[in-house]
Amino acid sequence: MASTREAELHAPLEWDTPLYRTAVAQFDQAVPHAGIHPDIAERLRYPERAFIVSCPVRLDDGRRVVFPGYRVQHSSVLGPTKGGVRYDAEVSLGECAALAVWMTWKCALLRLPYGGAKGGVRCNPRAMSQAELERVTRRYTSELLPIIGPQEDIPAPDMATNEQTMAWMMDTYSMQRGFAVPEVVTGKPISIGGSVFRHEATGAGVVMTIARACERLDWKLSEQRCVVQGFGNVGGIAAQELVDRGATVIAVSDVSGGVYDPAGLDIPSMSAYAKEHGSLEGWATGSRVSNEELLELECDILVLAAREDQVTSANAHLLQCKLIAEGANGPTSLEADAILRERGIPILPDILTNAGGVTVSYFEWVQDLGRLFWGRDEIRAKLAEKMNDAFDRVWEISHERDIPMRTAALVTGIRDVGAALEARGLYP
Ligand SMILES: NC(=O)C1=CN([C@@H]2O[C@H](COP(=O)(O)OP(=O)(O)OC[C@H]3O[C@@H](n4cnc5c(N)ncnc54)[C@H](O)[C@@H]3O)[C@@H](O)[C@H]2O)C=CC1
Ligand SMILES: O=C(O)CCC(=O)C(=O)O
Which of 13, 16, 145, 414 places its Cα 20 to 30 Å from the Cα of 211? Predict the structure, then answer.
């Protein structure tokens, strides 16, 4: 049993939730392969800083509601912290902490000079008007003023936030400074310093990773039948990129459920429909399937691009795909990881597969700081170079050590952050 002193030191932490425990358990699986000092490992199990705010907001009907907001910064050892902001009814401190931890490994794996952060507001964005969302965003940004900034912490879009949200954040921050500070957020509209190709970057990066995996597995991407869960920024673009490369997308889903057609779906028309109606609800072509059924469809590649905790011990043995690509963060539980490994279904892990977004965010920040902007082809080529380099390092470690690609990706990130802590003389 732990002594009183140990119990004091390891008192339950506010962010200690199932998702955070998953992030730490994945870290613990990777640490023995990363060769870092135990003191460094212990440091990296905890975020550096967690900020909780309350955002009082007037609704359109005159009522005033207080929305909780969070921002967690996991590690600033490599540079400013970086990560998205999400609006969702389930946002919590623990969720943001887990996502911030993953951002640290993702940035290090892609060799970006950033640490990890994540934030969000606990609200139901689908039930809110644009005016209400604007008021929440501006209040949340005002509350974060002490901890964000181009050299401190740089937010970006995530679930249910977008270019408009970033424009409001940039404007709120800039008004406080008295001049325009585009480099305080990424994923902005191009008119205020956003980068071309940031909108497409995460989904495009997912498909670059799938394409690289297909090369290594000796599969033709154009012959693959794909299922995509989530039809927002990541899933919608990934589905389109798959079609552009000749693959057949046989099913997609969003929060309203899924659509399946073994002959292949008309993704451009479905994207236009989802944009106009806010979701795929009411889309008339193909068969409707539930989100649970969609995950169990027979296919070659399953792209998880909705949210965390979708493949668990309850359904991992029912999946009928040959490869999983994690566009979302944390969509596969630890137990499901073990079941899928046992079943021989490889997983292209989140911190590698969805890293296209933060990579082009980095390009956007660099362009903003230099006030010099690059073209689409240049950015796409630079992104492909970085994604392929990260993929190759992960693939190599995974095969050399016979460890899953998730562990290999974590090892790469953890090793570099550990080395930076040591070089700076911070630990051990
Ligand atoms: N936007 C970005 O640049 C990046 C996003 N991600 C991750 O990708 C995931 C998706 O993010 P975005 O596409 O940006 O969000 P989004 O809000 O644009 O889209 C989310 C999509 O998932 C659907 N969805 C929500 N719950 C669902 C469920 N239970 N079953 C099926 N579909 C469901 C929504 O209806 C929507 O179509 C998140 O895990 C996010 O953290 C990761 C890297 C970068
Ligand atoms: O673009 C960024 O800075 C962060 C993207 C993000 O939140 C993620 O990769 O999960």
Answer: 414
